[in-house]
Amino acid sequence: MDLKDFYYDLPQELIAQHPAEKRDMSRLMFLDKYSGEIRHGTFRDILGMFEPGDCLILNDSRVIPARLFAKRVSDGAEIEVFLLRPLDNSNTWECLVKPGKKMKTGTKINVRGIDAEVTDVFESGNRAVHFEFDGDFKDKLNEIGQIPLPPYIHEEQEDYGRYQTVYAKYDGSVAAPTAGLHFTEELLGELKNKGVEIGFVTLHVGLGTFRPVKEEKIEDHKMHSEFFILPEETAEIINKAKKDGHRVTAVGTTCTRTLETAGSRLGITKDNVKLTEMAGETDIFIYPPYEFKVIDRLITNFHLPESTLIMLVSALAGRENVLNAYKEAVKEKYRFFSFGDAMFIG
Q1: Four-CA torsion 42, 43, 46, 48, nearest 10 degrees
Q2: Which of 46, 91, 201, 260 has the most CB atoms around it within 10 Å of its CB?
Q3: How confident is the model over 130-165, as pLDDT tens digits?
Q4: Number of structural domains, the chain?
Q5: Residue 227 is part of which domain span?
Q6: Once rounded to an integer, what is the mean pLDDT over residues 21-28?
Q7: In a domain, 153, yes or no
Q8: What is the pTM of this model?
């Protein structure tokens, strides 16, 4: 398929710069993946879309304060260091460094009193940076780092906590699994009281989530790799739901990629779902005409044109249905991207 097949025209003013006043009161578009029918509501309306025994799967990864401001020791130049992932247990991280031209191996920097050194330069242009810190550097990040926001959010935020889900638990993401930002503890409680089984996976979102697709033929695109965990408890919740004829709803593309990775590696089919616990790296790229093995329904936000995320959504609901829904969302002035409104595909 061609990249241009996933283009749509988005007015810049529809890119949300701030979250909705209340998490669960953002707008919700319901898209029937079979007929393409569209309905409109608010996020709390998802309560009416679940039956007892259905299951809801959430990504409990937590965004780390990955944005650091440093100075180069040799000349005092200001440097921005963006943590991508830890490389080992000795406080060495793969990082984006800007400006990076002079940041060669051996370059020393200081991050708010913590000495650090560039120990390697990768082919990608990323750097390995070792931080001289006696202790767990992840804990120190809460003091010296800043929660990073996507590049299309330009305005300062009053509450950076709104860029975390209410159930975020395990540190590791550099971008939020944003479909989950709409949930409140109260709404999750109401779903549980209705008999909905709630399970968690962990996928640490990398900066590659914003990486544009540059290849004209999307099949030539190489996905970034991200670490995931599918716990045994969650696997059992899904297996029981499937066995009893209930539906699996993934919250976000990260949950979807985790579950479909597990399904693919186990060689299961949608009619015989038997998941087991699993952990590792995934670079799964889901685009039409992918056949989903685990999930039935998806809660997601509205995604960038020509992104791998809109391709995944198109694989579930059909490209024409999705582009028609996006056209409707623009017409109805839905709010787009991380702090924007939601779509329920079922």
Answers
A1: -30
A2: 201
A3: 999 988 888 889 899 999 888 889 888 878 889 999
A4: 2
A5: 3-63+158-345
A6: 96
A7: no
A8: 0.92
